[in-house]
Write a structure and sequence with these properties.
It is built from 8 helices and 6 strands; from the N terminus they run αααααααββββββα. The chain is α+β, with helices and mostly antiparallel strands. The protein has 2 domains: 70 residues, no CATH class; 116 residues, Yope Regulator, Chain: A, CATH 3.30.1460. A hairpin with a 5-residue loop joins strand 3 and strand 4.
Length: 198
């Protein structure tokens, strides 16, 4: 008699053949949809991508590292932190913005040490960093400038730590970065402060 794990494993084997996308790709899509509740993400996958309820539900469980999903696939389902978000992130650094990838990598090397609860949510133009709420965003804005948005309510802008103004309403401050050398202790300190406040 097939167990729930057996059924899940079979479903995951069929997912790519049925939908044209791998589980990892669907997880990236689900993470980037901007919704947080399980049912909302399931409904998004069904309505926006036309997949069945069973597959949509399985993808959201996989995204949240559901134990039965890990057992069914025989491996962790979330993208490893070292990849910094996988293929969705890779797309942000395509073409003219490729030279900014080392800045992102340097930032993530530090941010991944803040705690195991840092969640990456790649969006169309940037990567949102969340804990219980968004505390920062990493934004390759132009071919030569990387913007780091930081949520530090109550902190006065000063020097490199400028007001985000109308740049991004989801954060209070922005730091403009043009070289890896500018990913320094000062910038990491502000990010860690925002993480601690989230």
């Amino acid at each position: 008699m097939a167990t729930p794990d057996d059924a899940m494993a079979t479903m995951m084997k069929n997912l790519e053949a049925k939908t044209g996308k791998s589980l990892a790709q669907w997880i990236e899509i689900a993470r980037g949809c901007g919704k947080e509740k399980h049912g909302e993400i399931v409904n998004y996958l069904k309505s926006e991508h036309g997949i069945g309820h069973g597959y949509a539900n399985a993808i959201v469980h996989a995204m949240k590292d559901h134990p039965s999903m890990a057992a069914a696939t025989g491996r962790p389902t979330a993208a490893p932190k070292s990849t910094g978000g996988g293929s969705a992130v890779d797309g942000l650094f395509a073409g003219k913005k490729a030279d900014l990838r080392p800045i992102y990598n340097a930032l993530m090397n530090h941010i991944n040490r803040f705690g195991k609860d840092v969640e990456l949510a790649p969006k169309q133009a940037y990567v949102s960093l969340r804990r219980s709420k968004q505390f920062a965003c990493l934004h390759p804005s132009t071919a030569t400038r990387f913007d780091v948005g930081i949520q530090l309510k109550g902190v006065e802008p000063s020097g490199r730590l400028e007001s985000a103004g109308s740049w991004n309403a989801m954060v209070s401050h922005r730091v403009r970065v043009e070289t890896v050398d500018e990913v320094d202790a000062e910038l990491i300190g502000w990010l860690k402060q925002a993480y601690d406040m989230a």
